[in-house]
Amino acid sequence: MAFVPVDAVGLEERAAVLATRSIKRDAKVAGLRLAIGCMDLTTLEGKDTPERVNQLCRKAQEPDPADPLVPPVAAVCVYPNLVTSAKAALQGSPVQVASVATAFPSGQSPLRAKLEEVHAALEAGADEIDMVIDRGAFLAGRYHEVAAEIAAVRATCSNAVLKVILETGELGTYDAVRRASWIAMEAGADFIKTSTGKIAPAATLPVALEMLLAARDFEQMTGRVVGVKVAGGIRTAKQALQYLVLVKETRGEARLHPRFFRIGASSLIDDALMQLAKERTGAYQALEYFPKD
After folding, report:
1. Which domains, ranges and CATH numbers included, belong to the chain?
2. pLDDT tens, 181-199?
3. Which of 106, 149, 239, 251 could tie 255 with a disulfide, CB 3.0–4.6 Å?
């Protein structure tokens, strides 16, 4: 399709206005529970172990034992070699297992190796794959190569949910973000995702807004619904609520659901739980009152 240049000033102004939207107490509580239900609780560190993943999975299933109204998260996201541990820990749970793949976070490996990694994650039981695009190819203008790689991963994924990470902090412009979003969606992405969380800037409100607009336009043009996942640098309940506002105002309340919106999170869940406890009890609870991850 022909791309109309993004109005960067207008995009940033719109994101800033939406970020200041006032939210009443009941809506805040509902929003924080929704945000937790949309989280991909994530650990992607070199020091990850099966024991660490088991702890994360326990928290994913019951984020706050003192508040049964807090839902389980949408998914736990881990490296491929820890999918088996996560799958076992989440057996019988609605929480999905997501695995990063395709030479995360750089994307700099031969396609054959990337597809082998995807296959290994799926064989281990992954329900969802978070792949990274080859930003070098994209920035060099080799768009067909990027699209072909995504399509190959899509074909390998079969029925698994495919989230395509754009790493927007490396793309440079909102125009590039929109083009990369469209390439990923046309190639078969179920979600387009902002970032790996390994570089700065990661998720930002204007970038997320542009991706939501791209997904809305794609849905209107093709009839296929593609979700959006924001990840990296989202640490506070206030930020989570701001992203929920973006989704509602851009795509409508029907898209405020884990099938269509995810938040990649590690430390965010603790702040959301603290804010919910404050609304419930009138006082902040110390972190040790919540399950450890």
Report:
1. 8-280 (3.20.20.70)
2. 999 999 999 999 999 999 9
3. 251
- In the block, tokens 């125009």 appear at 175
Dump the DSSP string for 51-71: HHHHHHHHHHH-S-TT-TTSP
Active site residues: 130, 193, 229
Distance CA 107, CA 133 (A): 6
